[in-house]
Amino acid sequence: MRMITVIAAALATLSVVAPASAQMSASTRAEMAKMRAANPTSYDACYSLATQRGYSTNDQEHEGRAIMNFISGCMAMSGKR
Q: How far is CA 80 from CA 7, 10, 35, 60, in A?
């Protein structure tokens, strides 16, 4: 249930963050790199789960933010288990 809340909040935030045609920003790339450096195993597992659930891995800002928010929520939830 908490995961649904995290995902819903992430999607609501993303709807106004960036236009879909923009290339992924350096800050998005840096944030994803920081998450991966902090916990590579959890990051990789959450990234794999995100792609299985249909999140896009292309180089667009909107999709990059969506997958980043999913991974962030996933990692936060995996730490509470």
A: 16, 19, 16, 31
